[in-house]
């Protein structure tokens, strides 16, 4: 699922940005592929809310390292909440992965 965090409804895990191909769908238990992280410092808060509510994706694959997204996972870990894996995969490599493909991060 290709998405970005600021386009996610607060804590509910539904994509709300109409520009996204999966608008209206849940990110819960799915892998998010984010070629270019977009947004601001709110991305860590959105991810933290998703983790706390149990609506987080199974993993996030970023096109480049992003400290703001990672911060959400780190804070959740420090609070004793469940966390998810983060990985980096170049955007051109992400393009080779089709929606619905089974992937393993770790």
What are the defining features of this structure?
alpha/beta, 3-stranded parallel β-sheet, 3 helices, globular
Strands, helices and their partners?
Elements (H helix, E strand, L loop, with lengths): L30 E4 L7 H12 L5 E4 L4 H12 L7 E3 L2 H4 L12
Give an account of the 3D structure:
The chain is an alpha/beta fold. Helices cover 26% and strands 10% of the residues. It contains three helices and three strands, in the order E-H-E-H-E-H. The longest helix is centred in the middle third of the chain and has 12 residues, at 42-53. The protein is globular. The two termini are 18 Å apart. The model has no long low-confidence stretch (mean pLDDT 85).
Range of strand content = 5-15%
Overall pLDDT: 85
Strand order of the largest sheet: 1-2-3
Query: Uncertain segments of ≥5 residues (pLDDT<50)?
Result: none
Major sheet: 3 strands, parallel
Cα-atom radius of gyration: 12 Å
**Shape designation:** globular
**Proportion of helical residues:** 25-40%
- Structural category is alpha/beta
**DSSP strand tally:** 3
How many individual helices? Answer: 3
């Amino acid at each position: 699922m290709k998405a970005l965090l600021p386009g996610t409804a607060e804590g509910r895990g539904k994509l709300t940005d109409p520009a996204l191909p999966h608008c209206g769908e849940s990110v819960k238990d799915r892998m998010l592929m984010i070629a270019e992280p977009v947004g601001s410092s709110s991305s860590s808060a959105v991810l933290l809310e998703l983790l706390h509510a149990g609506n987080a994706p199974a993993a996030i694959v970023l096109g480049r390292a992003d400290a703001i997204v990672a911060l959400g996972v780190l804070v959740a870990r420090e609070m004793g909440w469940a966390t998810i894996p983060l990985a980096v995969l170049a955007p051109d490599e992400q393009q080779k992965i089709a929606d619905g493909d089974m992937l393993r991060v770790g």
